[in-house]
Amino acid sequence: MQHKDYFKDKKITVLGLGLLGRGVGDVEFLAQSGANLIVTDLKPSTQLRPSLQKLRKFKNIKYVLGKHRLEDFKGRDMILKSASVPLDSPYIKEAKKNKIPVEMSAALVTRLSPAKIIGITGTRGKSTVTQMIYEILQQGLSLLGVTPVAKIFLGGNVRGIATLPLLKKAKKGDIIVMELDSWQLQGFGESKISPHIAVFTNLLRDHMNYYKGSMSKYFQDKANIYKYQKKGDYLIAGKEITKKIKAKKIVPKALPNPPAGGWKLKIAGEHNRENAALALEAAKKVGVSERVVKKVLENFKSVEGRLEYMKTVKGVKIYNDNNATTPDATIMALKALGSKKKNIVLIMGGADKGLDMIKLLKEIKKYCKTVVLLSGTGTDKLKTIWLSDSQIVDNLKDAVKLAIQESKKDDIILFSPAFASFGLFKNEYDRNDQFVGIIKKLK
Length: 443
What we know:
Elements: H1 3-7, E1 11-15, H2 22-32, E2 36-41, H3 49-54, E3 61-65, E4 78-81, H4 90-97, E5 102-103, H5 105-112, E6 116-121, H6 126-143, E7 152-156, H7 166-169, E8 175-179, H8 182-191, E9 197-200, H9 215-222, H10 224-227, E10 234-237, E11 248-250, H11 270-284, H12 290-297, E12 308-313, E13 316-320, H13 327-337, E14 344-348, H14 358-367, E15 368-374, H15 377-385, E16 391-393, H16 396-406, E17 412-415, H17 428-440
Parallel strand pairs: 1-2, 1-4, 2-3, 4-5, 6-8, 6-9, 7-8, 9-10, 10-11, 13-17, 14-15, 14-17, 15-16
Antiparallel strand pairs: 12-13
Helix pairs in contact: 5-8, 6-11, 6-12, 8-9, 11-12, 13-14
């Protein structure tokens, strides 16, 4: 069935439009496909103006903004739920009570697309591994002078990229590389599907505020990436995570440092050698040789906001690790960049996610000469208990200014928050963009 035939004249309620581009792209695709749409979002129209502007030409969209209404979850053919909306939402419960299917874009594409799906999840490293695999498949053959037959697409939890339009773009023989967070994987659980190739980087404590402290519930959502795989599928994991699986399981070791093996990666950290090993295995499963993978990965640079080298100012190296929203992530950054010199000036802090900070604080004492704290509910706990001598600022500009004052030649300024962005920022992308803008202006 063609995608237009599947969605044409269907009455669809889209729960969550947002400002990141993914929701807008999905709604645009559905409108072009002839669906009868209700788009509802808790944000008012004033906050959603950029998204609404992009959709203004469509006459088959009705908006309910600043609120949700139970009536919009009755008498519909489908509900398309954004990843941030919990499955126990009263509106989702209303839809299910009325026997209306609740879909999520990544799961819907995985179910309907004829393309091969490579799905990547994990607490840390999924964005880096996703980008590695995408670049290997996109660039690898052309770097060797071979024109690839298949087209390669990105989807899932990728900034600014809508997933549903891939139903129109990706054909049989093409490959979709899809980053999947735990919320998107709820949709896979609902549909009882898993991608052909599943990559599971690791499982660390995160989102405990959402999962009410239950690692089991968090893992169950993540596990949907492999739970419904069949014989002939592949699970590539950073470590042993399950024994009950029909797919073939591969647990690779980190790529060796030179001279053993000779993988000269530009990205720092042992964790990135583990990420690269996962990307290598995934690429091999779609027929890419190790020689091609090596050529691409040795030129691979950090993904934005993931231990990304920005610039050197007066002998001080500056790194952007904005997407480190957990203590484990910041620990990885400290271990990757740190030395016995204790020459790291760390900028961290933000909103509490209910995670234990004790291990991080031990690593801070080992590697950091000083810490600059951004205000937030999590920061308040640290200030009271552990980092009483650190200064708290309420904006990134002041944080960077203070970090520069505290640093000298051969030091490292590391922006690795270890907390969520809520409070000072619209979202983690806003936090990233603010930091990047400030650093670009430095001379």
